[in-house]
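Minutes, structural biology subgroup

Action item carried over from last meeting: produce the structure token record for MULE transposase domain-containing protein (Amborella trichopoda). EB confirmed the sequence was re-checked against the source entry. Recorded below for completeness.
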Amino acid sequence: MYGFLYNCRPLIALDGMFLKGTYKGILLAAICVDANGGMLPIAIAVVDIEDTDSWVWFLTCLWEQLNERPNLRFTIISDRQKGLKNAIQRVFLDCFQGYCIHHMGESFKRRWKNHVLLPLFWDAVRALRPKDFQVRCQKIEKLMLRRISG
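Output recorded by EB:
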């Protein structure tokens, strides 16, 4: 944990994955990015189900380890799984929350099923200036409105 607390950005990615082999369950993982840009797992656990209670338990254990630097504010990135979102709000009271852009892109693709909108979505994601982001979002909005009304 020392390596993460003192040598990595205060950014944690959380996710749960189904175990489908001999041993069943859900693998919960907390991962950060080290100074070389590599992924560094900082906590893992296997639980029976992925729900708010499982995530609260996992995040409480993680928080107890991170409490060595109580003034450090974390940014937590996750998918928008409901149980996880609620657990983060209960355990990491003053952290910043972000959502995995890959998951958002997949949701966008499923929702709109349009080969023109998806590249515009990724163009907006990659915009480096707020003005460029707004321009791209306006293009997406116009096309979406045309699709809804047409």
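Discussion: The beta strands are 11-20, 24-33, 39-47, 75-78, 96-99.
Next step: EB to file the record with the rest of the batch.
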